[in-house]
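User: Before I run my own analysis I want an independent prediction to cross-check against. Here's the chain; please return only the structure tokens and, at the end, one sentence I can use as a sanity check.
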Amino acid sequence: NGADAVTLARELSPAVITLDVQLPDTDGHEVLAQLKADSATKDIPVLMVSILGDRDKAAALGAADVFTKPVLKDNL
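Assistant: Structure tokens:
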């Protein structure tokens, strides 16, 4: 879920985050905005994954790239 994603990103400082736009509790774009607004997570590249492929919104919020589902392992 979105809250856990933000908490784990702060705790683990991963090299990269893959983030689905459609989350059970919130919109992935909102999570992306939270990650980019937080000094502890703002520099972590976020790859958005969406069935819609809404590249413009994700890019405006700071996503490193957007993948449209289904995502092929070699593309990722």
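Sanity check: Helices lie at 2-12, 28-37, 55-61.
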